[in-house]
From TrEMBL:
GO terms for molecular function: oxidoreductase activity. The keyword Oxidoreductase applies. Residues 11-190 form the Ketoreductase domain. This is NAD(P)-dependent dehydrogenase (Short-subunit alcohol dehydrogenase family). It holds the Pfam family adh_short. SMART domains: PKS_KR.
Length: 277
């Protein structure tokens, strides 16, 4: 079966988590290329601002509020796309949260929220998206994972675990979706230099700008590659590092992230909040 690549004439591109960051930048990029882009997040005002910003572009933005942790919300969003705006041609499942986990200060809520948004949230979007695409025998899906899903990294006990699960989820679904005419891809960004980012808990090597991230993703969505990973050299290096014996992997990652120099967490070294939160 030929790979389906969604073009503007095929219908709507849906992006979850488009009120800020990568999802927002990608929505603008795809709208500039002529796509009709349905954007979902909880922050209605920010989505409306995004819609206004895209008003001069050749495509356009449709605002569809929703919380990915609410399965019914996602069913409504998909019904609204299909019955009010057009066919769902592509779903980019991007909504996610990064809650740094420190073993000295564990709390259940960080794990539960990460799993609810990053994992169950993707499942809540996938179910209606695949159902609609299956009925038409075509469609394109891209799941946003992260280089942190390749292997354990400092602070990633919840976030990295969800991203590793998404990698496995996308790989596993591909076997069946290929037969159904639905193309699934994995988006694996390295570190994206967000304008609002303060100091993170560890060094983030090889950051790329939001614009570059959107450019890489938009290009990759039109390629036949299963994985859209960038920046290429850094993501390849982390993937190869995962093949090392653990005796070499942990010292290398300690070095690359600067984690070895970081003192254990205590009252004098409070957790740095992550800007994505
Ligand atoms: N930034 C990086 O360096 C980096 C690297 C690799 C992968 N990623 C991944 O890229 C994706 C986007 O992250 P970002 O860096 O662009 O972060 P961001 O600016 O914080 O964007 C996250 C988006 O997800 C939405 N969101 C969060 N919880 C939601 C919920 N319950 N329901 C619906 N939408 C929700 C947020 O909108 P509302 O709050 O308005 O709902 C926002 O639009 C995430 O999956 C992240 O893991 C980021």
């Amino acid at each position: 079966m030929r790979d389906f690549i969604a073009r503007p004439e095929h219908g709507i591109v849906w992006i979850s988590g488009a009120s800020s960051g990568i999802g927002r930048a990608l929505a603008l990029k795809l709208a500039a290329e002529g796509y009709k882009v349905a954007v979902t997040a909880r922050s209605h005002e920010k989505l409306v601002e995004l819609q206004a910003e895209a008003s001069g572009l050749s495509g356009n933005i449709i605002v569809l509020d929703g919380d990915v942790t609410d399965a019914e919300d996602m069913e409504h969003v998909l019904a609204s796309i299909e019955y009010e705006h057009g066919t769902l041609a592509m779903a980019i499942l991007n909504a996610g949260v990064y809650l740094p986990v420190h073993a000295e200060d564990l709390n259940r809520a960080d794990f539960e929220k990460s799993f609810a948004v990053n994992l169950s949230g993707v499942v809540n979007c996938l179910l209606p998206a695949i159902r609609h695409m299956k009925a038409k025998g075509q469609g394109q899906i891209a799941i946003v994972s992260s280089v942190t899903g390749y292997g354990g990294l400092p602070t990633g006990a919840a976030y990295g675990a969800t991203k590793a699960a998404l990698i496995n989820m996308a790989e596993s679904l591909k076997f069946d979706l290929d037969k159904m005419g639905i193309r699934i891809q994995l988006i694996s960004p390295g570190f994206v230099d967000m304008p609002t980012v303060g100091k993170s808990a560890f060094l983030m090597p090889a950051p790329v700008s939001l614009e570059e991230a959107a450019r890489q993703i938009a290009g990759g969505l039109k390629s036949r590659a299963f994985e859209i990973a960038f920046p290429r050299r850094f993501t390849t290096m982390v993937k190869l590092a995962r093949l090392l014996p653990y005796g070499a992997y942990f010292p290398l990652m300690n070095h690359l992230t600067g984690w070895r120099q970081r003192p254990p967490l205590d009252d004098h070294h409070p957790v740095m909040p992550h800007p994505a939160e």
